[in-house]
Amino acid sequence: MSLKQQAAKGSDVDEKMAALVTNSNAIRAIAAAVEGTLGPKGLDTMLVDKFGEVIITNDGVTILTTMEANHPAAKMLINIARAQQAEIGDGTTSATVMAGALVGEGVEQVAKGVPVTRVIEGIRAGVKKAIESIKEKAVPVKGLDDPALKQAALIAGREHEDIAELVVEAARLIGDEKLNSASFKLSDTIIAEEGAENEVFRGVIINKERLSKHMPREVFDASVLVIDDALEPEEIEDEALATEAGFARYQELREQFRVNLDKIVQTGIKVILVDRGVDSFAEEVLTDAGIMVVQRISGKELRKAAEHTGARPVKRTGLRKDAGELAKYLGGAEKVYEDEKLEHIRILSGKGKPMATILVGAATEEVVGERERIAKDAAASVQAAVRGGIVPGGGAVELALAREVENIREDIRGMAAYGVDCVIEALKRPFTQIAANAGFNPLEKIGDVIAAQLKEGNENLALDCDTGDVADMFELGVVDPALVKLHALKAAGEIAEAILRIDTIIKKKEEVHQNPVGSDFE
């Protein structure tokens, strides 16, 4: 090979390595932004926008999705964290920290001469083994009265006792069947409001007030009509309205609307929930009839209200049905009332699907968002624990997994073993960060814990962040849902593999927009 060819080959290698290093630096920078929040002694992050608005939070996904990140690799990691949040509702910080460690270790191995494909092969094997082991170590919770559920809520909820109690109470109201449903998220039942008292109740909240203060403020044994449309006469085209036939049709539709309103009153409907606006004539008629009407309800809240009351939503054209047929579409609730202080409507004890609402109080507007985030994390953790069991927290289970992954290293062929090493080091990362955030020497403490786990044969041992002693996490009540750990590890492995596979970064050309065929500018 000539000197010129050798130089070209070396330049190509340098360029590919530069792409890896650039992406690795971006990933590690993102991980560094959240790693300081990990563990019971983790600190908060302040996010400031260009208008001076401030968010102070300890929540990993909030930091990641709110921070400014322009590097493509950084955006990939943030998207993985967002997917983790959507899937399981917690564990984004752990996933990000492990992803940063996996990528960093992988790049170091490549820099030493290990082929990227062998590193990826080893990472896959290591992650696969760790995932299998997590499933084996998961301890099922013993029903909704298991004290471990509250502990899971406390850990995820940053030791807010009041929030943990609210979440567990709500879980008991909703029941096992609903919590195990893939379509249901306990975290969606949480509402945080300034000036509210902490409360859990069987029912739903609509963040609207009644249409008129002359309508009843509270209704008992309420029959509920849900209109997924406007409560207005059927529409007619403006052009048609200008004709004699069109005007006659308009008059006919107005008369039909009056008939529909009379039918509603005669049917004994007490509450009407409307997706869009309400005609002024309808407002007058329904107010006189003593019916509570709530308009312009968000689609999400309207669906929840319909499910809880057992109502079948109808369009405005559906109001033409005869009274007997319309009655089949009605739902019911023991009580519907307006909380005038908090300016919302509550629907209690509906006759449809059981639902609970967790109302989290906050003293000031500034802390409403953070209280809600804390409660959502706690709720997601409780639901994940019900669905997949628990494992010891504090980095204990990851250290145990690291040893098990290490045991398969000798069975891995060739240089792929270096990829397994990346997984081993990444699994140690959560513990070392927790120890560092608690003010201890992570190298010293990881040695103490690993030695104690081996000596006592107890994989539940980790660091008591208050005393610095080695302690059993289950005895301390430091537990994490197994599903959170499982998904965090899967997410970290996926992003690490995706980043390590990129060896070239090419800037896309600017798209040139062609003039439409037949335009005047051709």
Descriptive notes:
With 522 residues, the chain is α+β, with helices and mostly antiparallel strands. It has 3 domains: 11-139 and 391-500, Orthogonal Bundle (GROEL, domain 1); 143-189 and 363-388, GROEL, domain 2 (2-Layer Sandwich), CATH 3.30.260; 200-361, GroEL. The chain contains 19 helices and 14 strands. The strands form 4 sheets. Strands 3-10-4-9-8-5-6-7 form an 8-stranded mixed β-sheet, with helices on both faces. Strand 1 and strand 2 (54-57) form a beta hairpin.
CATH topology of the largest domain: GROEL, domain 1
CATH architecture tag of the largest domain:
Orthogonal Bundle
Across the major sheet, the strand order is: 3-10-4-9-8-5-6-7
Report the mean per-residue pLDDT as an integer: 86
Share of residues in strands? 5-15%
Looking at the structure, what is the overall shape? elongated
According to CATH, what is the class of the largest domain?
Mainly Alpha
Largest sheet: 8 strands, mixed
Q: Can you count the beta strands? A: 14
| Tally of separate domains | 3
Helix content: 40-55%
Rg from C-alpha positions? 29 Å
Low confidence ranges: 1-12, 518-522
